[in-house]
Write a structure and sequence with these properties.
The protein is mainly alpha-helical and 413 residues long. The chain contains 20 helices and five strands. The structure holds zinc ion. The site of zinc ion (ZN) has 6 residues, from helix 4 and helix 7.
Length: 413
């Protein structure tokens, strides 16, 4: 029995009208999406807060498409995430995100509409809910905590709804779901007046990139939305049938993307610094991240990485200053709070550690934060509290949970 109240039943796919198994009622579909939207944004890079106008623009395009969709009454939301990885995802209930790294790859508004229309269908047709019912979700890692981002070092740390949200965002859709999303997404595009040829071009480009196997699309968009020759052919056929031309809005798109594109060299320097740090080359990593900060001094992500590099170099007070800065720039972001709290605990600043670890857990609960909150409670002679924190951390997996169990046993013996 899963954590969800299961009500067996049958319903129709709201987009296609075909019958589908429905174990999860709509009320739960909506509450799941609403609860997991913020934590899932944060495990995928957090909001691109340096350019709020870009999110306003994406939201405008998205809401026009949502209004002509088969479920116009879903509480749709759209956000731009601060990640170089080209990706987009939809949670149940119409909670949609697109990464900065995908937006900078697109050429015009019609291509953006094609991506958003596709995601809207995934939400409207309840594809995620279907994947959940079929047990198709896999454990997803979380970006932004460890240096080694590609392995699963930090994978088991997410707890509760945050873990489910990350799984929903990263799990692979079936080819059937992909074809359905392309088909109806193109219909929504045409209804709003966009040239559907943009969807074909994009699929052709994605297929070419996926065959090359070099692009970072492979770990992003292609992992959850696999491109295929069949998709390209179906889309071509569909566009031939529709036989329409429409707007591309390239000028508007270029204007709206100007800031994100200007910032790209800074994000490239950050990416290079992260790679160097992962390879253990901390002094070169420090040089690179300083380049990024020189290009853009308002990006919390850069200070968080420099803080982690300083920690590796045993410069705890410099690390603390950078984590403080990251938190000041983006106080809601759980990973900056987490690093700040762990650093404070290392320096035996217990109240500061407690405050930051608690704030991190309010948004995205992790086993590591619960474990270290337990350590703080022990040091402050709050035994009952420590037992509670360790018990929670002990429910997770891996080394962190193991350590929590050991400490719990010590306390309760
Ligand atoms: Zn898809």
């Amino acid at each position: 029995m899963s954590a969800f109240a299961v009500i067996a039943g049958c319903s129709v796919n709201p987009v296609t009208g075909e019958k589908q198994l429905s174990l999860i009622p709509e009320s739960q579909e909506l509450s799941m999406g609403a609860e997991q939207y913020t934590p899932t944004q944060q495990t995928q890079g957090g909001q691109f807060y340096l350019d709020p106008e870009l999110t306003v623009y994406v939201r405008e395009v998205g809401q026009k498409l949502a209004a002509v969709s088969d479920r116009p009454d879903l509480p749709y939301e759209f956000v731009v995430l601060n990640s170089n990885v080209p990706n987009a995802w939809a949670l149940p209930g119409g909670k949609i995100a697109i990464n900065r790294g995908l937006l900078t790859e697109l050429e015009d508004e019609a291509q953006l509409a094609s991506v958003l229309g596709h995601e809207i269908v995934h939400a409207a047709a309840r594809h995620s809910v279907q994947r959940m019912q079929k047990g198709m979700l896999v454990n997803a890692g979380v970006a932004g905590l460890g240096f080694a981002l590609s392995d699963n070092e930090w994978g088991g740390l997410l707890m509760g709804g945050a873990a489910l949200g990350a799984q929903l965002a990263m799990a692979q859709y079936s080819q059937g779901d992909e074809l359905e999303s392309d088909h109806y997404g193109i219909e929504y595009m045409v209804e709003v007046g966009y040239d559907p040829q943009a969807a074909v071009e994009l699929q052709e480009l994605f297929l070419k990139l996926s065959e090359g196997r070099q692009s970072n699309f492979v770990e992003g968009l292609f992992a959850s939305h696999p491109p295929s020759q069949k998709r390209v052919e179906e889309n071509r056929k569909r566009v031939r049938e529709l036989g329409v031309n429409g707007k591309r809005n390239k000028d508007v798109y270029d204007r709206k993307l100007a800031k994100a594109r200007d910032l790209q060299p800074a994000y490239d320097a950050h990416e290079a610094a992260l790679k160097l740090a992962s390879d253990g080359n901390m002094s070169a990593a420090l040089g690179k991240i300083n380049e990024a900060i020189k290009l853009e001094s308002g990006e919390a992500m850069f200070f968080a990485l420099r803080g982690r590099i300083y920690e590796e170099l045993d410069e705890q007070t410099k690390a603390e200053k950078d984590f403080d800065k990251a938190v000041a720039l983006y106080p809601e972001m759980f990973s900056y709070r987490l690093h700040n709290g762990l650093n404070a605990l290392d320096q035996n600043k217990l109240d500061k550690a407690k405050e930051n670890l608690s704030k991190a857990n309010e948004v995205v609960p992790t086993s590591i934060a619960f474990l270290r909150l337990g350590d703080v409670a022990v040091k402050q002679n709050r035994r009952e509290e420590a037992i509670q924190y360790y018990s929670t951390a002990a429910k997770a997996e891996g080394d962190v949970a193991e350590e929590a169990r050991r400490k719990l046993a010590n306390l309760t013996n």
